[in-house]
Amino acid sequence: ETGVTQSPTHLIKTRGQQVTLRCSSQSGHNTVSWYQQALGQGPQFIFQYYREEENGRGNFPPRFSGLQFPNYSSELNVNALELDDSALYLCASSLQTGGTKETQYFGPGTRLLVL
Amino acid sequence: DAKTTQPTSMDCAEGRAANLPCNHSTISGNEYVYWYRQIHSQGPQYIIHGLKNNETNEMASLIITEDRKSSTLILPHATLRDTAVYYCIVRVPDNYGQNFVFGPGTRLSVLP
Hints:
The structure holds two protein chains of two kinds. The model of chain A has no long low-confidence stretch (mean pLDDT about 90). By secondary structure, chain A is an all-beta fold. In chain A, about 0% of the residues lie in helices and about 55% in strands. Chain A is globular and about 40 Å long. In chain B, about 0% of the residues lie in helices and about 45% in strands. Chain B contains no helices and nine strands. Chain B is globular, with a radius of gyration of 13 Å. Chain B starts with 8 loop residues before the first strand and ends with a strand. Classes of the chains: A mainly beta, B mainly beta. The interface between A and B is medium-sized, with 32 and 24 residues.
């Protein structure tokens, strides 16, 4: 158990809809990263939040957006869902101090199915 | 793209040591080697990381070659619960939003 929690565990949406996924970081961690993992592939980095601001982004379109709250929890929002958005969405938390980011610890993920 | 190459799959007998290799020939001087594993449909689990010295913890040992171009993760006494996909990642722990770049990993099957 890493102490990172995600909700919901599973979700079914239809194409064109919007979805919000939630993540609570491990106690003491101030940084949250989001990853998308398609079936049979390794996780792909979406973006990271530190001090409530986006602090790095992977190759994902603007319809993927996020938030980080003062308690360091985070949301991932995806607009205009496409079939290819079906995946396991992973949240990872870590502690960033000065110029160093510590090890990331992953939550169990949210499995999204877009029909 | 991932900066590491790993075998696609490996088998190991239960109770024996599992040695998982990783090549990272383009690793930079300040990049660490990280290992994670992912058991089916769960989130990746941190195992160990190191810079240039060998590392050991309660889960595994990490052996990094002197030139740092390759490493080996050792699970000393593999159990059936160690069956998973193992990811080797190189990364600089800086503050510029750089994150883990996962490759396809090695699928380890521990056989009874």
